[in-house]
Amino acid sequence: MKKLAVVISATLLLTSTASLAEVYVGAKAGKSWLNEACLSSINCDDEDKTIGAFLGYEMWDILSIEAGYDYLGKFTASGLNDDKVTAITLAPKVNLPITDTVSLYGKFGGAFVEYGNQEDYSYLGAAGLEFMSNDNISVRLEYQYISDINNEIVRASGNSATLGIVYKFGNNEKATQPVVLIEERPQPKPVIKAEIVEKEVVKPIITTETFKTKKLNSNSFESNSTALTEESKQNLTNLVDILSAYPKANVEITGYTDSTGSASYNQIVSEERALSVANELVAKGIDVSRILIEGEGENNPIASNKTKEGRQQNRRVEITIPEFDYQAQK
């Protein structure tokens, strides 16, 4: 137990200066079994149930570090007589997003194993799939392998297949920047003096006006997400009002990502973010022929991709209403 305290203390030291939003905890349960543990044992039981718990810290979107405690079960085998096997683990976790809600991950690190009345240090490897339920909760399917669990008789290895649940602290506090229309001061309209003529009807005066280009602030997205928040949908109302009032107005929507992931993957995500805004405009009655969308991937960042805050700012959509002329009646 002293070694467990050392591992947990080291992990807490790594997270002590970090935001609570990057810390997560989890638990898992499933089946465990040993390989090459029954070479010299007549009565052998090398399968059991396993449970475990872990604490992690997300350093970047693709890299975390985890410490855990696994109870692998009780076994009867060479060097074991209905004895328990436990492991204290420490390993980095590398995440590879597959979709917005599913990630493939792998771990490779070390483990301190108690095998009956024996103790040993071993290598640990694991692979699995993680499914995001919401911003705070995810579910894992994982296979874990612990190599060369030594005792005085055999060199065995431990295996486990588990289903786990993870809780991430603070993610529900992440605020998405709303789309805000940048107001420009209108150009003064020319003053037209009408000459009053007795018994003469004054016809309305038609003038040509120019609508100046308008740009909207960017809308931030979660990592690997293309979904608009309800607040962002509401903030598109000003844009819809302008497009409805000026039938000649068109809109250009450009999506962007941060530098996480491959360039080809980021290009697809940026296009889908622009398409999310376009679909919302169409749902509010804007004709699709007036909308132009494009994706720029990770190009043209507005902040540094080396920080979490900078990457969040770069996950955005920029909206522009180009300049156009229209007829106005005075």
Structure description:
Its main location: membrane. It comes from Aliivibrio logei 5S-186. Belongs to the outer membrane OOP (TC 1.B.6) superfamily. OmpA family. This protein is α+β, with helices and mostly antiparallel strands and 330 residues long. It has two domains: 22-169, Porin (Beta Barrel), CATH 2.40.160.20; 206-327, OmpA-like domain (60s Ribosomal Protein L30, Chain: A, 2-Layer Sandwich), CATH 3.30.1330. It is built from five helices and 14 strands. The protein has helices at 2-15, 230-235, 237-245, 263-283, 308-314, and strands at residues 23-35, 47-60, 63-77, 80-97, 102-115, 118-132, 137-150, 155-168, 206-211, 214-216, 251-255, 291-295, 317-321, 324-329. The strands form three sheets. Strands 1-2-3-4-5-6-7-8 form an eight-stranded antiparallel β-barrel. A four-stranded mixed β-sheet has the order 10-13-11-12. A two-stranded antiparallel sheet has the order 9-14. The longest helix is centred in the last third of the chain and has 21 residues, at 263-283. The relative contact order is 0.12. The model is unreliable at 1-18 (pLDDT under 50).
